Amino acid sequence: MRSSNTFGVHFILRNRPVNAKQPVYARITVNKTRCELSLKHYLEKKNWNEGKGSARPLNEELKQLNSYLEETRGKLARHYRELLMQEKEVTAETVKNAYIGKTEEQKNYTMLWLVKEHNTVKAGDPKKQSNKIILSASNAR
């Protein structure tokens, strides 16, 4: 039996005004869990249609924003389908990460990681081992 996932993308305005405009967010929902993504666009509340989750197409700028929102919805849906096809874990957070380009393979090298790696690999000639770790960390970026 195949399990079915629910997926939805809704656009909302957040109540954090910046210069009398509010930021537009995409709310991604997968299996009753949700995640929000800032779209880096700002809009006056009077130009927003709450029911449709889009801007009121009063001028060319608002029409372009609506096109951008639909393009974003399509890209999020494409990433959702790709995760399903790859049989990876599908959550709202993984769809968001796929959209912004954050993958599991990217490692976050920090000084703390470097010191821990140095201490665990410290066998034989410490100078050679330390240089290997530093080189591998710098080449990975």
Q: How many domains in all?
A: 2
Principal-axes shape call: extended
- Major sheet summary line: 3 strands, antiparallel
The count of DSSP E runs of length 2 or more, i.e. the number of strands, is 5
The SSE string, one letter per element, is EEEEEHHHH
| Broad structural category | alpha+beta
What fraction of residues sit in β-strands? 15-25%
Instruction: Please compute the radius of gyration using only Cα atoms.
Output: 22 Å
Descriptive report:
With 141 residues, this protein is of the alpha+beta class. The chain folds into two domains: 7-100, no CATH class; 107-141, no CATH class. Helix content is 43%, strand content 22%. The chain has four helices and five strands; from the N terminus they run βββββαααα. The protein has helices at 60-85, 92-100, 111-121, 126-139; strands spanning 7-13, 22-30, 33-43, 48-49, 54-55. The strands form two sheets. A three-stranded antiparallel sheet has the order 1-2-3, covered by helices on one side. A hairpin with a 2-residue loop joins β2 and β3. α1 (60-85) packs across α2 (92-100) and α3 (111-121) runs antiparallel to α4. The two termini are 42 Å apart.
Features:
2 domains; 43% helix; 4 helices; three-stranded antiparallel sheet; 141 residues; 22% strand; alpha+beta; extended; two-stranded antiparallel ribbon
Chart the SSEs and their pairings.
Layout: E1 7-13, E2 22-30, E3 33-43, E4 48-49, E5 54-55, H1 60-85, H2 92-100, H3 111-121, H4 126-139
Antiparallel strand pairs: 1-2, 2-3, 4-5
Helix pairs in contact: 1-2, 3-4
